[in-house]
Specification:
The protein is an alpha/beta fold. The chain is about 30% helix and about 20% strand. The chain has nine helices and 18 strands. Strands 10-9-8-11-16-13-17 form a seven-stranded mixed beta sheet. A three-stranded antiparallel beta sheet has the order 3-6-7. A two-stranded antiparallel sheet has the order 1-2. A hairpin with a 4-residue loop joins β14 and β15. α3 packs across α6. It is globular, with a radius of gyration of 31 Å.
């Protein structure tokens, strides 16, 4: 006699013989039946449940073939990590949110506190500044928005300055003074950026990890004002001050005799002021002399679409293409709001399976 027990689409067979049935212990039969049920349940879970999830400790279950539709065979591969996988009849989905990142030779976590203050204006708060707030600004340890008028709801700090390009220096000097008076002991480095700048904060911290905050130094995209041969860090892609640089600017830069207090070209004027107080411009090129801070949008650097003035302000002829930029790019300027979110998506949300950075 053949007795069948169906579990899903699996047929579990066990055989009994009528001649020896009376001699079998009923408990043994029950135990065999229980084991068959358990085996079938496990098989069903492995093969036919589309959303089943299994955690594997010392090993990871993967397919023998990269062609997931070729067969249903599985192998165990050595791993030191616990991974969560989802099984389907003819596929396997590795749940990326539960996987630990592959080990790379890239930067480890860097514990540096960065204050970011964003130069904006009342009309730009909900056109540009809000997108900084909702993307890269969230990764700053402290995020401030500096405007001519206070906005308690946004919020934005009111500096009581006039708006317009001819008053950018006044806005910057007032903002730096505010940061010095209220935040100098709450961060290690202090970044100024525009409301159309996109900054990869992690890469900025990676740049700063080899420097001490007591050193008078500031970083950015170093350019040279061609008329007076004045070196400066461009304001568009942002520039970052050490704590010592902030202290010197905050204690010595408040008078018109020491520093220009208003006017156009805030980046030139602030840089000139800092250099006067012994603050040096730090090198931000990588070992291959590729750039990290960028005054223009990314497509300008990819395709070499540089305006005439850009050549005049650079001491070396700008290169083009992906290899002109460091792998640890820090910032771009003139980034439209939609593009901020696109960049944010590609950097922080999208993952490419089985691809490891070089």
């Amino acid at each position: 006699m053949v007795s069948q027990n169906k579990c899903g689409n699996q047929n579990c067979h066990y055989f009994t013989n009528n001649s020896i049935l009376p001699e079998l212990n009923l408990k043994v039969i029950g135990l065999i039946s229980l084991l068959c049920v358990v085996f079938c349940a496990i098989s069903y879970t492995m093969m036919y449940t589309p959303t089943s999830q299994r955690k594997l400790r010392a090993r990871v279950l993967v397919r023998k073939s990269k062609d997931f539709t070729a067969n249903n065979s599985w192998i165990f591969t050595e791993s030191n990590e616990t991974r969560l996988i989802k099984t389907h009849r003819n596929s396997v989905d590795i749940t990326s949110s539960t996987l630990k990142p592959e080990k790379t030779d890239g930067p480890k976590s860097v514990h540096i506190r960065i204050l970011c203050w964003i130069m904006t204006c009342p009309n730009n708060l909900h056109l540009f500044a809000i997108h900084v707030k909702n993307t890269w600004g969230k990764r700053c340890d402290i995020l401030l928005f500096m405007s001519s008028k206070q906005d308690a709801d946004f919020p934005a700090i009111g500096l009581d300055t006039q708006e317009g390009r001819d008053h950018l220096t006044a806005k910057a000097m007032h903002a730096w003074r505010y940061v010095y008076e209220h935040y100098r002991d709450k961060a290690d480095w202090f970044l100024k950026a525009d409301d159309d700048t996109y900054v990869i904060v992690e890469n900025l911290k990676y740049l700063l990890k080899d420097y001490i905050t007591s050193e008078p130094i500031f970083f950015g995209q170093s350019l040279v004002e061609p008329d007076i041969k004045q070196p400066f860090n461009s304001g568009g892609p942002g520039y970052v001050l050490s704590k010592e640089a902030l202290i010197r600017l905050g204690t010595k830069g408040n008078s018109s005799e020491a520093c220009k207090q208003d006017g156009h070209f805030e980046d030139v004027n602030v840089s000139k002021c800092l250099l006067k107080f012994g603050v040096k411009i730090g090198n931000t090129l990588d070992k291959q002399h590729r750039t990290k801070f960028h005054h223009l949008p990314i497509d300008n650097y990819l395709f070499g679409k540089y305006p005439t003035w850009y050549y005049k302000y650079n001491t070396k002829t700008p290169r083009k293409g992906p290899d002109s930029m460091s792998e640890y790019v820090i910032s771009f300027h003139y980034v439209k709001p939609d593009l901020m979110h696109i960049i944010d998506f590609f950097i922080y949300h999208m993952k490419i399976y089985n691809v490891r950075s070089s």
